[in-house]
Amino acid sequence: MTNQIAPNKAQQGTQHYRRIQWGIILTGVSIFAQLYFFQPLLPALGRAFSVSPAISSLAISGGTAGMAAGLFAFAFWADRWPRKKLMSACMFGTALFTIVSAGSPNFAALVIVNFIKGMTIAGISAVALAYLAEEVDSNALGFIISIYLSGNIVGGMSGRVGVGFLNGWLGWRYTTFIVGIIGIVLAVAFLWTLPKSEYFQSQKIQVGYKFRQMQLFLRRPILLAMFLIVALLMGVFVSTYNYLNFRLEGPPFSMPHYIIALVYVMYIAGIGGSMAAGRWSDLYTPATTLKALIMTVIVGLLMLLSTNIWVFVAGLGVLTFGFFGAHTTASRIVSVSVRSGKSTATSLYWLFYYVGSSIIGTVSGVFLSAWSWNGFIIGLLILGLFCLLILVIVHKRYS
């Protein structure tokens, strides 16, 4: 009987590494385009189904709530299934649910389908980083993770921009159908490109132990602070993009759909924010960096009160830069604050992240309807200042 020697982990510059790199980019582009592409469509959904802005936002919140539920479930079950098989199944499932949503007979059906779709997307997010850690050489791991996160941002941006253009000409149903078909094509490309797992070992998770870990982490002030901060910041960020079209379609801007679509290009500022956060965290303490980035978010929100389109668009870029930088920094703080049970702490982080998005992303629409855009932004500013207060309170303990 001969012993099989496991292949070396993927090293930068090799064909194996390039296949992993392109495969993991495809996941980010596909799933985050499909998770958030309804944001530019919310005014169209409101008109089609005769619902308010706050109710229309459930098309987004349903998906992110599904993400939260799915990530919680996959925290217990994801390590039982081979990484590539799970991700492939979820990519095809996500695209199929996007296609199904195009035929939704009523708004409730659309929200339900998006919730299920969010759960399938969670299957990819739950294991993508674990796949990279298992298959890629440690010297190349940091770079390929940054590539994966950049793919997420590009996916979020391309979905919003592309849909913004198509909706004005084709309507939301045909636009949604096209997004789903593109999702199928990307899933096929992913299945063909990404190498199968070589180092994955199925594990049985002790559910009781996992719950005890979660309870322990929720009692630690620094971890709880990061969870609350990321929930609030994600709520602020998603709320802004949820209702952006409502602001730009009406006075004083009254912009046509193809110009509004271009405004979503500012989403790419998130790549700069993530990269800057990594560098600043090495030069200064992560807590100091996080404080500066939360203040950047607040400055961006203040700029969104302007009726000058150039100041407004710049403010959106500043907000996006600050959010992704703060998100990168907060996740790093969580990682370095935990010696064991990192996967559990990460699961809690993402749970708060998407719960904040789901709840605040919809509730903030009530402020928009009741107090117009300025009242809406003031509400988000209060949440931003609360994040700053939380960080100041725990800063000494973290230091």
Automatic annotation (TrEMBL):
Gene3D superfamilies: MFS general substrate transporter like domains
Location (main, coarse): membrane
GO CC term (a single one): plasma membrane
GO molecular function, one term: transmembrane transporter activity
Topology of this chain in the membrane: Multi-pass membrane protein
Domain Major facilitator superfamily (MFS) profile: 16-399
Coiled-coil regions listed in the entry: none
Transmembrane region(s): 20-38, 58-78, 85-103, 109-133, 140-159, 171-194, 222-244, 256-276, 283-303, 348-370, 376-394
Cellular compartment(s): Cell membrane
Keyword check for Transferase: no
Family matches, as InterPro entries: MFS (IPR011701), MFS_dom (IPR020846), MFS_trans_sf (IPR036259)
Protein keywords: Cell membrane, Membrane, Transmembrane, Transmembrane helix, Transport
Family membership: Belongs to the major facilitator superfamily.
Name the record gives this protein: MFS transporter
Species assigned in the record: Fodinibius salipaludis
